[in-house]
């Protein structure tokens, strides 16, 4: 990551990428970009890393934009603990860095504080001021821990055999039981016929 | 989506985007691209849609590359049912389309079948043949259902108040309890000091 360390983070260019991928320059994804970078420059060059986000909000998009880790390739895992934090860690040994927003640091940035701690309704927030405070604050909003990931996170889960569900007729992992999880009642929808006659 | 319907899907250009985002041209993301498109062209122009993936494998990246829905903006939800299927649905009314790989259609494409149903070990799979069969098969691998999403998926979960966890000192949603979920034992790592003295 020597090259990364020497390259200043171009936050304006990053904001354009966020707008394209995430839909708008959400403060959470912008701060997330700073957080990803804080973790990434601490990982020794050449080390392959995985990522954890502790919330579904915003941070997964920052990780996916700035690192090789995505939800679909399995290198990014979302463990929804409700904390605005992420970590990058050596995928073989589990040592890495966790970056979080330290509430002690928010007093200098009242607009960020009001947004982050939801002290104002959305309509009362000044998006431009939030973004300019984020640019001014930079890494000063955040804290960093060195972390060691628990061993079970380093194991790649065994996928096992794929079989056909006798109920819906679709392939599913045999380990899930005699019928697939959707047919066990977890399906988020009801199937209708196509064209749209409800059955 | 009239424009989308009239534009042929440039699978080679899509494969280059997959390589850049996902890391390699994984068969699951390539088929996922065809699946996303099958759902997307059925949604009337101008309708805002959300997405569900029924697996963490590959499909979330196809959705994130080809639609405005991402994990971090909340328009894509992963509900891990172990089925290789996705759906796009009207975010207000919940009606949409679910696309899945129909195992009945796999017999014509033995290399895809062996990969998808894990009939061969990874080392015995011919990646180039899988991709050329995917290109030849196109949408013929898949089935489509019209679906109606359950009402609870249409509600945006109430985030509620943010408070400071008395245990770790970080902000978390008050609805999670007296301390945050990480401090309730769900943390995936142990914190070390920085620099790396283990505490």
Could you please describe the fold and organization of this structure?
The structure is a homodimer of 199-residue chains. With 199 residues, chain A is α+β, with helices and mostly antiparallel strands. Chain A folds into 2 domains: 2-154, 60s Ribosomal Protein L30, Chain: A; 158-199, Wheat Germ Agglutinin (Isolectin 2), domain 1, CATH 3.30.60. Chain A has 8 helices and 8 strands, in the order H-H-H-E-H-E-E-E-H-H-E-H-E-E-H-E. In chain A, helix 2 crosses helix 3 (27-40) and helix 3 crosses helix 4 (59-66). The longest helix of chain A has 14 residues, at 27-40. The radius of gyration of chain A is 21 Å and the shape is globular. The N and C termini of chain A lie far apart (56 Å). The model of chain A has no long low-confidence stretch (mean pLDDT 91). At the A-B interface, helix 3, helix 4, strand 3, strand 4 and strand 5 of A face helix 3, helix 4, strand 3, strand 4 and strand 5 of B. Strand 8 of chain A pairs antiparallel with strand 5 of chain B.
Could you outline the blueprint of secondary structure elements for this entry?
Two copies of one chain form a homodimer.
Chain A: H1 2-6, H2 11-22, H3 27-40, E1 49-53, H4 59-66, E2 76-78, E3 85-90, E4 95-101, H5 110-116, H6 127-137, E5 142-149, H7 151-154, E6 162-164, E7 171-173, H8 182-186, E8 189-192
Parallel strand pairs in A: 1-2
Antiparallel strand pairs in A: 1-3, 3-4, 4-5, 6-7
Helix pairs in contact in A: 2-3, 3-4
């Amino acid at each position: 990551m020597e090259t990364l360390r020497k390259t200043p983070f171009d936050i304006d260019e990053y904001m354009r990428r966020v707008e394209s991928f995430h839909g708008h320059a959400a403060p959470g994804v912008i701060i997330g970009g700073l957080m990803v970078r804080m973790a990434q420059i601490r990982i020794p060059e050449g080390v392959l890393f995985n990522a954890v986000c502790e919330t579904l909000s915003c941070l997964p998009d920052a990780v996916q934009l700035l690192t090789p880790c995505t939800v679909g390739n399995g290198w990014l895992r979302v463990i929804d603990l409700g904390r605005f934090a992420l970590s990058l860690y050596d995928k073989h040994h589990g040592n890495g860095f966790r970056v979080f927003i330290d509430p002690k640091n928010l007093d200098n940035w009242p607009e960020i504080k009001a947004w982050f701690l939801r002290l104002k309704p959305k309509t009362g927030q000044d998006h431009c001021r939030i973004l300019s405070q984020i640019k001014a604050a930079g890494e000063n909003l955040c804290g960093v821990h060195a972390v060691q990931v628990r061993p079970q996170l380093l194991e790649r889960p065994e996928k096992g055999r794929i079989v056909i569900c006798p109920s819906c007729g679709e392939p599913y992992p045999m380990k899930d039981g005699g019928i697939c999880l959707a047919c066990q009642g977890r399906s988020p929808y009801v199937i209708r016929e196509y064209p749209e006659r409800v059955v």
